[in-house]
UniProtKB/TrEMBL annotation:
GO terms for cellular component: cytoplasm. This is Protein FAM136A. Pfam families: DUF842 (PF05811). The lineage of its organism: Eukaryota, Metazoa, Chordata, Craniata, Vertebrata. PANTHER family: PROTEIN FAM136A. It comes from Oryzias melastigma. It comes from the Eukaryota. Coiled coil: none annotated. Belongs to the FAM136 family.
Length: 138
């Protein structure tokens, strides 16, 4: 993927992840640490009970991180498939005798279109992630 296109995608995805981190993940981390501290403040519990308590505290955050990672992987897979289609089109054009500038131009337009299409998916991905994060039991 051309560097400018890659930078555009990275910036938009990074902005989404930072937003999710600020609005959701950070609060979950705070609850996890408070919950874990509460587990450690129970002097009558055995070491095993405290460990199980801490594990329960970590579960919501682990689910959230898994959710975000999975969604980002799906996004990356879709974008990769789109750019592979562009590579195929460019190879076909080159194999049919087209000159390199025409092939590069096709490739740039095609990848640019992939990037635009996938950047346009970010708001719905963000909305879906926020809804799913909000539905994780605390």
């Amino acid at each position: 993927m051309a560097e400018a296109h890659q930078t555009r995608v990275q910036n938009v995805v990074e902005e989404m992840v930072q937003s999710l981190e600020r609005e959701h993940i950070r609060k979950m981390q705070g609850r996890m640490f408070q919950c874990s501290a509460d587990c450690c403040a129970r002097p009558s519990d055995s070491m095993s009970q405290v460990h199980q308590c801490i594990e329960r505290c970590h579960t919501p955050l682990a689910q959230a991180q898994s959710l975000v990672t999975s969604e980002l992987e799906k996004f990356q897979d879709r974008l990769s498939r789109c750019t592979m289609h562009c590579n195929d089109k460019a190879k076909d054009l080159f194999d049919s005798g087209a000159k390199e500038p025409a092939v590069r131009s096709l490739m740039d337009r095609c990848v640019g279109s992939c990037v635009d299409d996938h950047i346009n998916l970010i708001p719905s991905i963000t909305r879906r992630l926020k809804e799913n994060l909000d539905s994780i039991p605390q």
